[in-house]
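USER: Fancy drafting a protein?

ASSISTANT:
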Amino acid sequence: MTKDSAKPKVTIEKSILATLPWTSSSFGKHAEIDGVNPITGKWGTIATVNAIADVDAEDLASFMVDLVNGLAQTNQNMVNEQ
């Protein structure tokens, strides 16, 4: 058994779900998306979002957060129905 095979495998989906829910904060020309670090339990920045073309950074970050949180909720509802 190799050292790597002894580690439990965690899927990307489970890793991302552990950071939810996401929030966003605006700082003028950029916004930050924050989530919970599943190891420390503390909030941290997952991504920095910059404005593009005519889309404000705050609006873009909020849109991304709503998508991720909404998809996660839909996924959880589907799991609960099984």
